[in-house]
Amino acid sequence: MAKRKAENRSFLDKWEAEYLFTYVKDKPVCLVCGVNVAVSKEYNIRQHYETKHHDKYKDLDMTQRSQKVEEMKISLVSQQNMFKKATSQSEAAVKASYIVAAEISKSARPFNEGEFMKKCMMKVCDLVCPEKKQAFSNVSLSRNTVADRTCDLATNLYDQLMEKGKDFVAFSLAVDESCDASDTAQLSVFIRGVDSNLCVTEELLGFKSMHGTTTGKEIFEEVSKCVTEIKLPWDKLVGLTTDGAPAMCGKKSGLVGMVREKMREENCAGELTVYHCIIHQEALCAKALKMEHGMTTVTQVVNFIRAKGLNHRQFKSFLEECGSEYADVAYHTEVRWLSRGKVLNRCFELREEICQFLETKGKDTAELREQKFLCELAFLCDISSHLDALNLQLQGRGRIITDMYAAVRAFKTKLCLWENQMLQGNPCHFPCCQSIKAQISTAVFPCAQFAEKLSVLAAEFSRRFADFDAQKCKLELLSNPFAVDVENAPTNIQMELIKLQCNDTLKSKYDAVGAAQFPRFIPDTMPQLRTQAAQMLSMFGSTYLCEQLFSSMKMTKTTHRRRLTDEHLRSILRISSAQSLSPDIDELASKKRCQVSGLGTSD
To answer: Domain SPIN-DOC-like zinc-finger spans what residues (predicted)?
Structure first.
């Protein structure tokens, strides 16, 4: 038999005075003891009142009962507000601890820095807002708490990346390896994924500690784990960029060869595009100049000045007495990309002061004053400045490979121009050379020699960037699809490319937003072009992100923090390198309860 619909289970106002009950969040609540009654039926409410509270309140008349109910309701609201406030303060304290832990990680500070910050917070609170002291005291910032919060934040970022990875239509990897302060090899793997809306996500995929050897097989196993753990299909991998080391780029036993073999085993239809980091190649091209003698001489001079404290102090005092624009000379560090140019330019500007100082020290400066050496130093300064400018163009996050390739092509064109101008004795784009040429005889300045150097450098650029030249057609499809020759385009996109090039609305949009943003406006009716754009947008042109991460690693895991665990190091670097993603602190705080830490304790 069906239940009787006449049965009324709505709460009646008269029950407040009769049974001392009220209605809170769709449930009857006893005003005396705070108990909830599951079903809003008079029988249940009456039974609770008669068995629990009848004897105590039976002598009250209706007026007294109504007054008592109002008092109890006010008390109940006050209790609820107190609990809400306590819960809010607890959640705020937990959120604050997560925020501080994230900032500690980003600044490469040790975990126990939280305890120092807590002491500072409490002292400031005593002066500025002493009534809030308990709220500040509830923020847990002990060493262990900060370490746990750091791991939670990193896990949350990884979970977000995994969720985003489900929408990737194409992704590429950038892989590099370096050693930390304890000589442990650390493998950095960054991912650049593009979803169906052509939005780019660029994040750290994995940071693996390799305590043994670092052969191509072992690197591949770690990279394979990174891809498998995040549940990405191998057939969506379109690009792989490495530092060019044999263990990375070996066609059989290297990472590149093994990734290609893995893709064949997975029956992947697409072809893997492999690049050697553009920035590394640009630095290697500079070695073709073979002007080590000039650099060696400059390095020896700088080392003489900087190696001994007395010489260094006297040189700085000498520059100050001379009223020099510069206060010092810098050390040359081979691994720093821009170090060479800065050292050379500073020494060129201070060449006269350096010679005078060395003579006071009894050093022979004949070589430093030779016209041939000064000409070589001037040329080396200028070409290093041009190379540094290119290097800066290639650095940075979120760089599109087409823009990087365009910068390299522009530099190659400049080299041809400079070569012709140098042959004509017109170094107009080489200010240091112009300065020296004005001081010496024109016949002495070796224009033909420097023109040959520029020719060699141009040839080296062409040789090293041949793999990018081979992809020229695909790169132009992203950089300027309206100028691509349809006949040279892949056959599967030719029809869509014709439609695109004949669409004046899309051409106007391209002119308005530029090449980087235009792919998002390609209509869904051109799926092949959108897929092609997604693949090119996902490409890494360099391993800059890996190098940047290793710089952070050096600041994080120093000689004083060698005992930092692999998990903690990985968590810190994931937080500090996050760009497209940010930790969901609200979600993390909702899973934690407030943990009050004392000032005098240390976990």
So the answer is: 13-71
